[in-house]
């Protein structure tokens, strides 16, 4: 900034950084390609059982096949359910964390319940959820919500409570109301916490959705996996798992992208 | 009439493992436009006293009277500048400076103009749209001061507000700030560990005892200089006399 003319040292430094990045990317792609090649060759040679473990070429074929049918529909359903559970979880979780931050009494009273709920495997509640809300999309979204909600509450509450006390005291010297303190200090202070929790949540929601789809077994990638297993079409299972991995990665990246955009405005 | 009356203040802190008497008996008053320095041993209750005057904390007994009115809770006639600048990193300098008036729902065009004027006086106007992390320590301290002055307080409380600065910056910042405060006729109470700094700015120095604190002495400071500044009064012979006197009382 001080020096509009970029120095030679700086050019060298930037080049080195760039080369380093390229090297890492090359390695990453290389490992993936090697893995796929090895898998294909071992399967072709009959060293691994391609009926159980499938093989890249068969996965590719299945993929093309499914694309003719209703693959998009299943992906769409899973993504929709995940996003619904995710957004509900974030909004409800943040709202609950706000309430617990507001009242330390409520927060202390609910502490043991939160701890128990947090360690309880929510998937165990699956059958109950299905009976209560019905075996459909709602049950699956509910499942995703159940898995991500408590984590969000705990994470956000922890962030809120650890806001720099001096900042709060500073706002108090201007006679800020509790709500003003939240809006002007505590919430913006925790934007980074919020995004960390978003990143964890998108993954957790997906776990909830897949578990829900296993149980409800009507549509979605989770359903395809269960179905493939039942009819011994392991190509279908493998293909669905790989598509699931790609979907998960894309959703995570979307959150990370959102974070970068917001942090540019809010960060520093 | 005094602007500020600190009447028979006592403060005990309650905790599960016992009770701490921080302030035993504090009683003094301050005239309009006066600059009071408060010195005392570490942990004697100086910050406690300022917090009580600011209304952030209730005294166990006694009362604070501002302009003849007993204050309950936080008064917007009092500006309190804490030791840390506490600039919000996600706000621009301008948005940091208006935080106080924003909280008090006083973002009038008149106040905005005042803020801009203050930014110009303190040579921060060009940094208006920058972020705190892009400023030096001295600049940040000045931003924090403007944020406090923006609410137009009658009484300003400073709690070791300059201790984070290096010596050089500290001398210039206190010099600048002193002149602005005198110009605006702001009544100021400043807590400091630095005795020379306390003397250089004060009209009176209040010396507190070890905890539980009482007022050990109040020393009027008078150099007889025509155009007194914190820098030029340090050169007078009287300055070291005051220093010796306060030093003795403190030890
Ligand atoms: N919230 C609190 N609860 C209990 N005791 C406290 C609390 N705040 C301060 N004290 C005690 O009161 C005494 C006075 O504290 P205070 O912070 O006012 O001192 P100080 O003179 O400002 O000290 P320093 O010069 O180190 O800043 C200390 O002994 C401290 O332990
Ligand atoms: Mg203190």
TrEMBL record, chain A:
InterPro entries: MetI-like (IPR000515), MetI-like_sf (IPR035906). The chain crosses the membrane at residues 24-48, 83-102, 114-133, 139-160, 202-225, 237-258. One of its GO terms (biological process) is transmembrane transport. GO terms for cellular component: plasma membrane. Gene3D superfamilies: MetI-like. It is found in: Cell membrane. Residues 75-259 form the ABC transmembrane type-1 domain. It comes from the Bacteria. It is a multi-pass membrane protein. Belongs to the binding-protein-dependent transport system permease family. This is ABC transporter permease. The lineage of its organism: Bacteria, Bacillati, Bacillota, Clostridia, Lachnospirales.
